[in-house]
Amino acid sequence: MDILLLILVFIVALLYAAVGHGGASGYLALMALYGCAPEVMKPTALMLNLFVSLTSFIQYYRAGYYRAHIFLPLALTSVPLSFLGGYLAIDGVLYKQILGILLLFAAIRFWLSRRAHVVQAGKASIPVLLSIGAAIGFLSGLIGIGGGILLSPVLILLAWADQKQTAAISAIFIFVNSLAGLGGQWAKGLVVHDNMIWFVLFAVAGGWVGAYWGAGKFPQLILKKILGVVLLLAAIKLITAVV
C-alpha cells in the first residue's frame, strides 16, 4: 500500500468536501495514474464518494444549509436512473470529453463572477428539478461519479441556491446517487479494491476536515473560487480522458 496514494486521497477528499462534493473524479484520476485495474476504479470511487459526501452533508446540515424542497425532487428521479447507469457498461470517452468542455465553461463562469452569494433565491421548478435529477443521475451512474460536479453549477447559475446551500444539497445528492450506482454495479458483479478500508479511513478524515472548514469557516466568495478549481480539475481530467 502506497502511503503517498493515501495522502493524496486525504487531500482530494478535503478539497472536494469543502464544496459539498464526494471527490469521485479526483479518486478516478489518482487511480488511473497509479495503474489500478479499470474494474475496481468505478466502484472504489463511488464507495469513497459515499463516505465523504455523507461526512460533508452532516457538517452542512448542522450549519443549517440543507434545502429539502430542492433535493427531494432531484433524488426522486436521479436514484433509479443512477442505478440503471451503474448497471450499464458503456465506453464513455467521447462523452467525458464533451462533459469536460461543459465543466470548463462552468468553471470559468464561477471565476468571473464577483457575486459572493445569491441575493434572493428564485423558486425552483419541480418539473425542471425532476428532469435535471433524471439526466444527472443516469450520467453519474454511467461514469462512476456522484453527480455533484454537474448539479452544483446548475443550482447556482439558475439562482436556486447559494454556494453553501448548493454544497449541502450536492453532498446528499452525491450520497444517494453513489449508493444507487453501487447497487447497479452490485447487480452485475462488484469488484472491491483490496485496500478499501484504508482508502475509506483516509477519505473520511480528509472529508471531515474539508466539510468543517467549508460549512463554517470559508467565506462564500472563496468557496465559489474553490468550486471553480474543482470543476476545472474535473474538466481537465475528462477532456484528456485520463479515465
Helix-strand string: HHHHHHHHHH
Query: Overall pLDDT, averaged?
Result: 79
Anisotropy-based shape? globular
Q: How many structural domains can be distinguished in the coordinates?
A: 1
What radius of gyration results from the CA coordinates? 16 Å
- Counted by DSSP, the helix tally is 10
Distance between the termini: 21 Å
Residue share in β-strands? under 5%
Structural class comes to: mainly alpha
Report low-confidence residues grouped into runs of 5 or more: none
Question: Mind describing the biggest β-sheet?
Answer: none
Helicity range = over 70%
According to DSSP, the number of beta strands is 0
What's the SSE blueprint?
Elements: H1 3-17, H2 24-33, H3 38-62, H4 68-87, H5 93-112, H6 126-143, H7 148-157, H8 163-188, H9 196-216, H10 220-239
Helix pairs in contact: 1-9, 2-3, 3-8, 3-9, 4-6, 4-8, 5-10, 6-8, 7-8
